[in-house]
Amino acid sequence: MGHSGTDADVVIAGAGPTGLALACELRLAGVDVVVVERLAEPSGESRAGGLHSRTLEVFDQRGVLDRFLAAGELQPVGHFSGLYLEFDEFESRHPYPLMILQSAVERILEEWAGELGVRVRRSCAVTGVDQDASGVTVALDASDGGPATLRAGHLVGCDGGRSTVRKLAGIGFPGTEATMTALIGDVELPDLPEDYVWIRRRAGGDYSAIAFEPGWHRVITSEYDRVVDRDEPVTFEQLRASLVRLAGSDFGMRNPRWISRFNDAARQADRYRNGRVLLAGDAAHIHFPAGGQGLNMGVQDAVNLGWKLAAVVRGTAPEGLLDTYHDERHPVGERVLHNTRAQSALARPGAQTDALREVFGSLMVFDDVNRLLRTMLNALDVRYPADCGHPLAGRRVPDADIEEAGGATRVYELLHAGRPVLLDLGAGAPLAAVAGDWSDRVDLVGARGEDDAWPVPVIDEVPAPTAVLIRPDGHVAWASGPGEPVDTAGLRAALTTWFGPARRG
After folding, report:
1. 0.90 cut: is pTM over it?
2. Could you say which of 17, 61, 137, 216 would form a disulfide bridge with 130 (CB–CB 3.0 to 4.6 Å)?
């Protein structure tokens, strides 16, 4: 049960990767959460096919990365609209994309959620939302036999691009309409040539066949200036016919596991929060799935929101902390919509686009261009607004090697519990004097750094700090550099902003 007679502290609509990741974050913080999902069981559709560097780092921060690595395969290259990108091991411990089916991601997250005590109700669709000053009443079409309403402190819509929660909350979803139609399916292709590689461009669009599992390929066909309503049923014959139009053959296509349709419509919620109702993942943003950014952005939404919502639920931070969720994540979503629109434009057929791709590809051989694109797609360059002037402030903290009293460790291992960490790397007494006032919410960790400099994407590296205040999502709230006095006033301000006022007495 939640607080004050509610059924839960938080109700999450949607048991996809975003909803399950958010549920896990909330449970790590001790928040009672119920996930409601309209489907009776996981769809099994593979949909998204990869996890990027920053998402791998997020799961590393929680100590569950090995589960995902065991179910996928690391790939040494990526792409921007089908043009190859190279990755740099200097920028992250996890520089390469992990090819893993969305169905496997959901399975692993649901297992983790179960271990943490998350309650998941399936066959349970949201039909009504009524919020007031003290909470939200969620009406349900409850085919699972459970209660037809749930009362909670907050509701988070993680229920996809057609989000019922978003519509019921009256949140706008402006954007651009589709200009193309793509079909996607996991099928057997026994006649695909053995030398087939990557994507093939044709007069009407393009097609690709990606081997994910032995004997199975993911086929994607994209036809431009051919727009079909996404809600129209899609069939195996439509996928076959599309591939024949583009490739001249169906390569013996047979035995489809699932088929779906998508397009390049790009929309974003005009606000991620309306009172006690919030949005995350596809409910907050949809776009052309170029570069596989959607699932990754949803998980990162969840990790940004989870600790903030937990702090508000527990009463250790003011309600206004939730406004920073929109302030930080809306610009990130806006930028992804922007780069996927660019990738969609680069994929269009025609002589003009072919010439543009050739010029663009020639630029991508330069390290600075390659770095800009890969760090953008991997979300390693995300920097949230921060009052502290240190170059690490607002950025995700590097996973530096450090030495604690108990032995060698890494920064990310300090974040497994999902709590904020004030890392003392030599600042000493001034830090301890401040930290005591937040010791119930922030873990003070003393350690010795192993390196003189920390790698930071975009700016290469910075001198190793003497102190770092790390938020639960792995972003730096405050830092102090070597050779400078500790700004205790700035540290107190950062602690108050992000983790609430100092405790009394």
Report:
1. yes
2. 137
